[in-house]
Structures are given as structure tokens and as C-alpha cells.
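Table S2 (text version). Query chain:
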Amino acid sequence: MRLHILGICGTFMGGVAALAREMGLTVEGSDAAVYPPMSTQLQALGIRLMDGYSAAHLTPAPDLVVVGNAMTRGNPAVEHMLDARLRYVSGPQWLGETVLAGRDVLAVAGTHGKTTTTSLLSHLLDHASDGQAGLAPGFLVGGVPGNFGVSARLGDRTAPFVIEADEYDTAFFDKRSKFVHYRPRIAILNNLEYDHADIFPDLAAIQRQFHHLVRTVPGNGRLIVNAHEDSLAEVLAMGCWTPVETFGIGQGDWQARLIEADGSVFVVHYRGEAIGEVRWSLLGNHSVLNALAALAAASAAGADPRALLPAFASFQSVKRRMELVGEADGVRVYDDFAHHPTAIATTLAGLRAKVGKARILVALEPRSNSMRLGAHAAGLAPSLADADAVVFLHRPELPWDAARVTEALQGRGRTAPTVDALIDALRAQSRPGDHVVFMSNGGFENAPRRFVQALG
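Corresponding C-alpha cell output:
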């Protein structure tokens, strides 16, 4: 079978492509935005990438077209696909029917932390099965986990499959959230805030989608729920038919007691009993919550949580999650995916706890649909409280005035119209001992690495 994947370089669709290739299918795909790490991974797998969305890419006709949710009516490839009556399916539906059917699925949902928690849970289960041939878990992560080097693998068919469960819609012809296709036995509900302003009118609309996910989890499964989130408690109040375990810092069934303020060392308690200590390289309270969620889910899947604690020390985070990309002239430079005020605030708070009074400089690209629409504009300045200086990429096409953010930063913020100007501004401000964080959910024109080069 020959699959053509439209939108193949998206983090999710790239994972779908990797799984299809591992199944022995011939895989090719089209995309308009090809950049690492996904493009590099796909090419290494021998998958042919085509630039743009020409109808000619679908001639001769593939056996099946797998459609990413970035595709819209009016796209030349989509219009040709429909006119020629080619067989097509959404990525989540293909995954649910072809890969996940018949397996124990562990789904990781939430506004923040999905990618890191999915990677960590996969790592823990892989550790639990170490030395037991045939028990390697499968996974699909919206990024490239450091411990695996690929965003997806089938694993053993008898082992669990861990999947990042996104609430964004499925395709132009299926407006349900992706995660309704996955039918998990164990689901993590990590957090829930308003996001995706391009498709959801308010938080209640997202909560309804999360409740659709809750409805699919069987009674003999498990829901792992953040005890700090009132919005998730409201989802469960809509109806719940599955046992629930909660987690939190100082509250919930699974609790963490911080030993180090930056979250790098903490003790885990389960229903009042100390399980043991975690020491790892990640920072921030949000990372601690991700750790508790993953440990609780692994335990629900049958793993011994005490035996898993040493595996945290060897966990390598996902690329572009506070990834240290280089150090030059005494300046440490990080690439981070944060694109929501809460994620920005918690990431910077974790770094501040680690570096103390050292200066933190932030380069911010408002690239997500919600950011570009200005849905998070009011929350941006408060989220940057731990930054000593901020350079905001204000491209001419941004439909709202970034001065709303920079003025609220009271002298700590400025805008730049291009990435080149942004790099120049950071270079002029930086000095030895600084920590510079680039934040964007897109390619950012390779700005972090270009900045390291500019520093010499």
C-alpha cells in the first residue's frame, strides 16, 4: 500500500508517517513548512518529502491519502483529492483503526505538558520492561524524545501504546478533537485552560471535548487527574464512569514534596505512604506535576512505581523543551516550545529557581493561532515576570499591537520586526552569565542557533 500524507511534517503527522513506514507501507508526503527535527527524522526513514501542495503530487493516485488537520478546502491537493474521488482518512482515524485497535492505550491530554509527559511515560514503561523481550511499549509523541530519537514507534503488539492526546480538531471534514479516536484504557488529564482561540469560543467548549474523551475510557480503566485544576473537576462533574486517581504538589492521591525549590529533587507519596525520591534534570513545578502524572499512569498499567524512580535520572527531555542549544561568550542559549502564558510563566519560574539572580533574556515569537489572534495578549506581560529583558518578534502581519505587551513590561520589553533585528537586539543586550530563552511553537527561522553563531 502507498500512503500519501498531506501535512506530513507536522509533529503528529510525522509520527503517523513513521508508524506507517515501520509497518512496511510505502510512505510519501507533502508539506509547505519543512524544518527540523521532523524533516530530518522523516528523511532518515526513507520517506519522500514533496514541497508544497500541488495536485501533481497525487498523480498517480496513492492507495490512501491521510489528511492532516492543517489542510483546508481550497488547498490544491485537497481539491484534487476530492474531485478525483481518492480514498482519504484523517490521521487520528487512521491511527485509531490501524495501530491502536486491540492495544492498551495510555493517552496523555492537557493544555500543557502533553509532549514531555508522553515521552516520560514511554520512557518509564520502557524501563519497566527492560530485559523482558517483547514488552517494549509503542508511542507517538508530538516531538522527538531524547531517549528514543524518533517521535513514534510501534513497539510490541502485546505492550501498551502511549499517545499524546491532542484536543485540537481532527480534520476539515471531522471537527471532533483528535483524542476521541484513541479509545484509551488509561487517560491522563494533566491540566485545562483556554487555548486554540481559532476553533474554540470559550473554555466550556474545550471542557465538552474533554468530557467526550472521559466518556470513552472504560470502567476497568483509570483516569489520572490533576488535583489542582478546577476546570478538570468540572469536566468530571459532567459524568464519570471510571476510577479516578489524582496528583498534585501537597494534594491528591499521588503527591510530591519538593526537596529542591527548582523541582530537580522531590519525594513521591502515594496515599500517605512515601514511595521514594526522584532526582532528575528537569525544572519547575509543572515538570514535577508531569512526573507524578506519568508515574501514576505507569502504575495503573501494572508497573511497580518504586522500581521506576531510578529511571527519572536517565530521562532526556524532548527537543525544544528548554533545550540547551549552545553556549558562547559565557551566554547559555535555550530553545523552548512554550506558547501559552501559563507555560511561559512556569518555564521561566523553573529557570529562575535554578539560576538565582542571573539575568534571563527572552525572545518570544507569537506564532500559535491563539497568539496571532491576540487571545493571550493580556496574559503575556504577567507571564514574563521572571524575565529581565524581552524581545518580542512583531512581524508586520501581526493583527494586534505588541506595544500592549511591551508597555506593560515597564522598560523590560521591546519589539523587533524581523528575526535578524531580534538577534541583533539580543546580541546588544547579552553579557556573560546570561541565560537567553527563545520561545515559539514554530521554527523561529532557526533563531536560537543563529544567535549562538552571532555570539561567536
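Notes on Table S2: The mean pLDDT is 90. The first strand starts at residue 2 and ends at 6.
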